[in-house]
Design goal:
heterodimer; A: mainly alpha; Glutaredoxin; Serine Threonine Protein Phosphatase 5, Tetratricopeptide repeat; two-stranded antiparallel sheet; 16 helices; globular; B: 2 helices
Chain lengths: 301, 47
């Protein structure tokens, strides 16, 4: 994904060229394995940033599209690296912006307790600006959820209820959608789905709507909701083949065979190599079903 | 490559994306200490 989507980007390339020596290390081979061990790299890809002496400055764990990695790298260059933030917070614990940024870095590393401690520091600080406190509360609700390995959503729910009319309920809503779906809590699922149908606005929202829509469609559950979620996901990401594929399946489950066919044709046209065959297979089934049963049969998956 | 294609290729700006150092992490350390740049290490696995 980095190779296909992020590294060919001209702005990413220009930024790395100007400020970094970029090198690839295969952690599956001898020398690479030793280096990964030395830096305690546990997930792949990990993008490790060091100074010229090899001291770790920061690390980014997991795939990053250009739009995400560029501001992160700029932050690292501009003095908001993990190492720099730790120094800033150690020197001045009342620098709440730095505390909040550092907490987010700990959270990304999976150090949820440390993140939680720092978020609480921001929330409890006398005179903390309302905007910083609000951000800390939102991030804290996520940290608590992640720390519980997805079992305890109460903090997320509380924050979502409190902030859903504000600018940042979407992140909580995306996670809660999947959570309520897995927990089979239909009432809560319907409410969060409605919220995302109304307010969803970007690819992250599309991704979470798509995941639940696909699961419902392929399990023959709640066909109407599955279709609504898939439609919204496709509206937000109209060129995403996997999302169109979900919409086509949801259409088929709702008896909309013509739309299923048209949507799947578009999905196949846009499909990247690794999923094209699967989508073509489904297109054939949609075509057969439409021909053989005059559009009345739904495709079995 | 024909001479014309060669000429074109030579005159076009490079558009191949991120250029990774062909070498080890130690090579990157050396290169970074000369240029005072940071090092960006992409740890990956084949699987």
């Amino acid at each position: 994904m980095l190779v296909r989507e992020t590294y060919p980007d001209v702005d990413v390339a220009a930024l790395l060229e100007k400020h970094f020596i970029a090198v690839k290390v295969n952690a599956g081979k001898d020398a690479g394995r030793a280096l990964a061990g030395r830096y305690e790299v546990r997930a792949y890809p990990t993008l490790l940033i060091t100074d010229p002496k090899g001291e770790e400055v920061d690390r980014l764990i997991g795939f990053r599209p250009p739009a995400k990695i560029i501001p992160e790298l700029k932050g690292i260059i501009g003095g908001s690296s993990f190492a720099a933030l730790k120094k800033r917070v150690a020197a001045d614990g009342s620098d709440l912006e730095a505390v909040l940024e550092l907490a987010a870095k700990h959270q990304e590393r999976g150090a949820y307790e440390k993140a939680e401690e720092l978020y609480r520091k921001v929330i409890d600080a006398a005179g903390a600006p309302a905007e910083l406190r609000r951000q800390a509360e939102g991030r804290l609700s996520l940290a608590v959820y992640l720390k519980s390995r997805g079992r305890d959503a109460s903090a997320l729910e509380a924050y979502f209820e409190k902030s859903k009319d504000g600018p940042d309920g979407l992140e909580q809503a995306r996670i809660l959608l999947g959570h309520h779906h897995r927990a089979k809590d239909d009432g809560k699922l319907a409410r969060v789905a409605e919220y995302l149908l109304r307010h969803g606005r970007d690819r992250a929202d599309a991704g979470s709507l798509n995941a639940v829509a696909w699961d419902l469609a392929t399990k023959d559950e709640k066909p109407k909701l599955s279709l609504e979620l898939a439609r919204k996901a496709a509206e937000l990401a109209p060129e995403d083949a996997a999302i169109l594929d979900t919409l086509a399946v949801a259409c088929s489950k709702n008896g909309l065979h013509k739309e299923a066919l048209e949507t799947q044709r578009k999905a196949v046209r846009l499909a990247p190599e690794q999923i094209r065959k699967e989508l073509e297979g489904r297109l054939e089934e949609f075509e057969k079903a439409a021909e053989e049963h005059g559009g009345k049969r739904t495709v079995r998956l | 490559m024909t001479p014309i294609a060669l000429l074109l290729a030579a005159s076009l700006p490079a558009a191949e994306g991120v250029k990774f150092l062909e070498g080890t992490f130690d090579d990157a350390l050396q290169a970074a200490s000369k240029t005072e740049k940071l090092i960006f290490v992409d740890f990956y696995t084949d699987t």
